[in-house]
Write a structure and sequence with these properties.
By secondary structure, the chain is an all-alpha fold. The chain has three helices and no strands. The protein has one domain. It is elongated. Helix 1 runs parallel beside helix 3. 78% of the residues lie in helices and 0% in strands.
Length: 85
């Protein structure tokens, strides 16, 4: 695979992940949970698959979007169960 194609895929993955992370409200990893760490590992593997063209870009976008949606949903549920302070 030529370097220009890899660079274009890397830029695409960066932009998609940046948009998804901003939409999910995640701005820092200072207080990351084990679940957030696991999510970052899975997303990293998905980026690797995208860079080497093992999956289509649409599969990457849907997969990353679903993972971040579920992760954000679990955070909201955790905060609601904790109740007001």
């Amino acid at each position: 695979m030529d370097l220009l194609r890899i660079a274009a895929r890397a830029l695409f993955a960066y932009v998609v992940l940046l948009v998804l992370m901003r939409v999910s409200g995640k701005r820092t990893v200072r207080h990351a949970s084990p679940f957030a760490f696991t999510l970052s590992l899975v997303l990293g593997d998905m980026v690797d698959d995208l860079l080497w063209a093992e999956v289509n870009a649409s599969v990457f976008v849907v997969g990353a979007g679903v993972l971040l949606f579920v992760h954000t949903g679990l955070d909201v549920l955790r905060l609601r169960m904790a109740g007001p302070r």
